[in-house]
Specification:
By secondary structure, the protein is an alpha+beta fold. It contains 4 helices and 5 strands. It has a 5-stranded antiparallel beta sheet.
């Protein structure tokens, strides 16, 4: 059981790292000369990357952008809270009640990052033909899958004795 708990803890840490990288790093949408994240845009000019604000207008709706930003940050917060609750529940709750709250936090993180990535997919870069989704966007979807697996594992684990 100790190995299982260590594996769950490691999976949770991996989820947190992926969520933080997906939220912070500047590679949600890429071209040869532009790197865009959910916070800013970097443009390559004369061999130097220059920080610029995100574009405005109908093709880059501010309300949806704020929803993506908020959902990404909430996913990170819920997952970080979940790891602290996981450790606290190991020592405080009775068998059968353990890990339920951790599973709920992970499931909320899963939903938040799914909402962020889904909105970004549906509302941004629809008319741009010469670009691709960057590694941060892909990490967001991988984090979605791993946080979902982690939350399901917590719900299954609560029935086991530890």
């Amino acid at each position: 059981m100790l190995i299982l708990l260590a594996a769950i803890f490691a999976l949770h840490i991996i989820c947190i790292i992926l969520l933080l990288v997906a939220t912070i790093d500047n590679a949600w949408w890429m071209t040869d000369t532009i790197s865009t994240d959910i916070w800013a845009r970097w443009i390559l000019q004369n061999g130097v990357w220059n920080y610029t604000d995100l574009p405005t207008g109908a093709h880059y709706p501010k309300d949806y952008l704020q929803a993506v930003q908020a959902s990404s940050v909430l996913a990170c917060i819920f997952s970080i809270l979940g790891i602290f609750v996981f450790v606290a529940q190991l020592f405080t709750l009775n068998k059968g009640q353990r890990f339920t709250i951790s599973g709920i936090f992970q499931f909320l993180a899963c939903l938040c990052i799914m909402i962020a990535a889904s909105i970004y997919t549906d509302r941004f870069h629809l008319i741009e033909n010469n670009g691709w989704y960057g590694h941060s966007f892909i990490l967001a979807w991988i984090a979605f899958a791993l946080t979902f697996i982690s939350s399901i594992t917590y719900f299954v684990l609560r029935k086991k004795t530890a």
